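Researcher: Hi, I'm a grad student and pretty new to this. My advisor asked me to get structures for two proteins we've been looking at. I'm not sure of the right format, so I'll just paste the first sequence and hope you can take it from there.
Model: That works fine. Here's the first sequence with its structure tokens right after it:
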Amino acid sequence: MATQHEGSGTVPLPGGSSLHFEIRGEGPPLLVPAASWVLEDLAPLEAHSCLVGYDVRGRGRSSAVTGDTPFGLDQDLEDLEVLRKARGLERMAILGWSYYGLLAARYALAYPERVERLVLVGPSAPRRRPFLDDFMDRFAGRLDLERLEEVERLRRQGQRETQPVSWCRAVHDLYFRAYVVDPKHLEGMRSSPCVEPNLDPEAVNNLGRKALEKMGDYDWTEEFTRLETPTLVVHGSEDPVPLEGSLEWERCLSNGQLLALEGVGHMPWLEAPELFFEAVREFLGAGDSALS
């Protein structure tokens, strides 16, 4: 099935929340969670795929999570299925980055008939230990201390409340620099998570931590041995998310392959665009006849 109508909109969710989506390009559908973080920078894929980008609840332009609003991986799985039905996507590929790689793989395990191919980019590991703690340590060790002090100074000045967009950009600039090997690669970045209604990066990060806590001490390696969906795992050797986690993906997936990019961090579409986009296009192109 090929989707070719560009635009944006919202999909209502049970309970009154909604997901914001954007559609770009022509060709077989490629679902991209974390649209506000990555979609603008995945434009080279639009020539051969119809990118259906969206943000999960509590992220980007989708509904904020407040009060008793349900959230977490299980909720994200349910919401993804609601979005798929609403957009009429009978079969699709999914590109999932970081946590969204784990979300994509769990969805494919639950709905194998809906997912043609998976691209997992710097994905969270198929089991929590020891990889999540390793990531936390590596990420903290890469933070620029001068910029961290500047962010704290802006907080003390009240910028979080008085200039929320500037505050958001300062916090994410600090984080993004910990993701990449060379900060120069961020200069051409077009995507930005600094959008309403989820503008406050601290609220977003706190929600992410709570979602991880709800997952507990998970280990889904045995379950993922049953996942037969063709899968490309892309992981930079210098990613703060441990490469060893993606080696674990390669071991447990029966139809998976790992592309390790030397000298690359957590954002390979910015750090090694030629290698990244060539590999993804080639992998997705092998499934054109089944998707179109």
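Researcher: Oh nice, that was easy. Here's the second one.
Model: And its structure:
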Amino acid sequence: MSTSTLPPQDLVSIADGRSVLQFAPWAGGRLLSWLIDEEPVIRWPEQANWNQPARVRGGNPLLFPFLGRHRVDGRLGYWRDAQGTVRELSMHGFARDLPFAANIDDDGRGLRMTLVDSPETRSGYPFGFRFEAAYRLADSRILDVALVTTNTGTAPLPWYAGHHFYFALPHTQRAQTALELPRTRRRYQLPDGAISAPEPGAPRYTLDDPLIVERFHCLEETPPEKPVTLVAPGLHRTVTIDLARPSSVPWYAVTTWTEAPDSDFYCVEPWLGLPDAIHNGLGLRWLAPGESETAALRISVGELR
């Protein structure tokens, strides 16, 4: 199959001065990139395969209604409800594969994208819902992001969503780049799908540490007493993720991941739960009919001299 490096539909941008975010609402409500002074904070690869945008290593894929891997009797991509019915649902859910409606704020600094249930979603997730992802530039270096889930059906709705931010970082700079965390307990997913026992987390790691690839840094306090911060001297930059926003439900963990030793990105991913929470309960949320919940965060980009 041939691949395309050109998007098949128009992209959407919001901006504040020289800070620009680009989106593809029709491709999973995907934030593609964030540039400040033409330098990438969140990266999108130049040779992205637009035949499968959900699989591109870049931007911020939205993970909903469930995140991570889930299994039933060893079968990956299935889940069992309280009545014992087994349904198929792909890893990280379906949101990243579906088109969102989009509305830009009047001042051009914000974008709200919305996904609602359909026959396609109800086959694997039989609930009425509205899922919204709202991005807004508070100023040229501060981005507010909110995930809003509403139960539009008549039955309690299970969910645990998350982000998958691909932060730009040359792989040669991993050893000098640090991740600073609030108090956490470190866990990971075992080959059989179970979650490891918690072990003490460190307040600081360097990104060349193999110990943090595909690790869940579970927050000891919610809201956390301090933010999550990437300190990147090689980029003269700090990236701070504030997970203690007003009116937000509590974030459960921050996941760290990169694909390969030469990948020029590092993912720092705020999650509301852990993989397979629908079965293990680790972060699983239940939303009553007619109710809404918001998971909010703020990303601030600072300068290092």
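Researcher: Is there anything I should tell my advisor about the second?
Model: You could mention this: The radius of gyration is 19 Å.
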